[in-house]
Structure formats: structure tokens, C-alpha cells
Amino acid sequence: MFFNTSAMRDTQAARDFQQRTAARMLAKIAEEARQAAVRQVDAAAERGREEDEAHRLKAAADSEAETAARRAASRAERLASEAVEAAKVAARVSAATAAGNEASAGANAGANEDGGSAARLFWAGGGRGDKRRWVPPG
Questions:
Q1: Rounded distance between C-alpha atoms, residue 84 and residue 49, angstroms
Q2: Which residue from 115, 135, 113 is spatially nearest to 123, judged by alpha carbons?
Q3: I need a labelling partner for 6 at 20 to 30 A (CA). Which of 25, 50, 61, 121 fits?
Q4: pTM score of the predicted model
Q5: Could you read off the pLDDT tens digit of each residue along the chain, which spans 138 residues?
């Protein structure tokens, strides 16, 4: 083994050592370059997966929002339809009540003219709903 490197420089052993060292360094550099390339490929693949996941999540969120909007529109339409039906029923009830009140007023007027008591109205229950009936005096 040489301890004086200046004496070693021009020997075959020194040249062999330098060649082995250079070969190891080149192999190490090549391995580091290969690992860096693998890391870059892995990083690109990861970015691709993340982008795909982001697109998938965005599509799912858009689909959910669209479904929720359709449900809300359908519910609003149904509520509007129910409100229209309720208004129709209220108008029919109001018209029926007005007609019943006019008949009752006429009966009361007729009974008062005859000297009798006022006409009586009562609710006859059962069956297909309550019906207002006029009961003559007596």
C-alpha cells in the first residue's frame, strides 16, 4: 500500500484505482439519474391521478348540484300546484258558503214574513262529508 500519493500517481496501480473509482462514480451517477427519472415519472403519474380525482369529484359535485336543483324545481312546482288546488277548493267553499248564506237569508226573511221563527241550519254529518241542510220551522 502506498502512503505517498505523489509517488503513486504514475504507477499502474494508481491508474487501475482511478479507473475503478471513475467506474464506480459513473455507475453511481447513472443510478442517481435513473432514480431521479423514476421519481419524475412517479410524480407525473401522481399529478395525473390527482387531476383525475379532482375532475371526478367536480363531476360528482356538479351532478349532485344538478340533481338538487331538479328536486327543488320539482318541489316548487308541486307546491305551486298544491297552492292552486287549495285556492280552487277555497273558491268552491266560498261560493258554496255564499250560496248557503243567501238561501238561509231568504228562508229567514220568508219565515219572518210569515210570522214564524227563523229558519234553522244544522250540519248533517256522516257519509261523504258534512252537508248543510235547511230545516223548516215547526
A1: 52
A2: 135
A3: 25
A4: 0.42
A5: 555 666 667 788 888 888 889 999 999 999 999 999 999 999 999 999 999 999 999 999 999 999 999 999 999 999 999 999 999 999 988 888 877 766 666 655 555 554 544 444 544 444 555 555 555 555
Closest to 138 (Cα-Cα) out of 110, 117, 109, 108: 117
User: Cell triple for residue 109?
Assistant: 226573511
Return the residue matching grid coordinates 244544522.
122
The Cα-based distances of 50 to 37, 44, 46, 60, 62 in angstroms read 20, 10, 6, 15, 18
Residue 14 main-chain phi, psi, to 5 deg: -70, -45
Side chain identity at residue 5, one-letter code: T
Grid coordinates standing for 100?
A: 248557503
Question: Taking Cα atoms as reference points, which of 43, 23, 45 lies closest to residue 35?
Answer: 43
